[in-house]
Amino acid sequence: MTVPPSRRRSPRGPLVLDIRELSRRAGSMKHVVTRVPAPAGLGTEMINVPPGAPIELDLRLEAVMEGVLVSGTASTPLAGECSRCLDPFEDEATVDIRELFYYPDRVVDNADDDDCQQVVNDHLDLVPALRDALVLSLPLSPCCRPDCAGLCVDCGARLDDLEPDHTHERVDPRWAALPSLVENPSQVENPAAIDNKEKD
Question: Looking at the DSSP assignment, which residues form a beta bridge with residue 102?
Fold first, then answer.
């Protein structure tokens, strides 16, 4: 059973905005510039916002007939793992946010409650909107730099730290056992001995 927004508890957290001063007057606006600590879970496994890192918000809150339109930018540091060399690296991201938070009595009839953001007791929770905007902007395969050469497939060393002519001698697997047989000739049976075994 879905709890109506009017009966829900007011959301809490650094990314929750109070909109009471807008008073549902269409056309009224509020400019919000602030810095807040990042919650956990912003990003992907390979690259994300470190929990507690500062998020710089520059937002405009505008009351419209259906609810409150939030637009602006969020800037934050990122911490990731290079998909080529696996080294940790740091970066920054600035994403655009544009989200309509519906008043409880203005939710579209055929809209799923999970698909649209709603105003809850004159408060807006920006976490879902920020998470969606940030995840869509992050690369699927982050790199510490565009020209990262990655790792050597034979020894696992970083190619950027090795000499340009770094190579490994490749041995045909069909002949891989020969060197050990040459070093230990006793492992090779004498053909004559094999014949004697067969006669016995």
Answer: 67, 118
CB 63 within 8 A of CB 34: no
Task: Please report the pLDDT score of residue 24 as a whole number.
Answer: 80
Q: CA-CA distance, 107 to 114, in Å (whole number)?
A: 11
Q: What pTM value is reported for the model?
A: 0.70
Between CA 87 and CA 187 the distance in angstroms is 45
CA distance 186 to 53: 66
> If you count them, how many residues does the chain have?
200
Are the CB atoms for 118 and 8 separated by under 8 Å? Answer: no
Structure confidence by residue, pLDDT tens digits, 20-42: 888 888 889 999 999 999 999 99
d(CA 133, CA 99): 10
Q: Where do the structural domains in the chain lie, given as residue ranges? A: 5-137
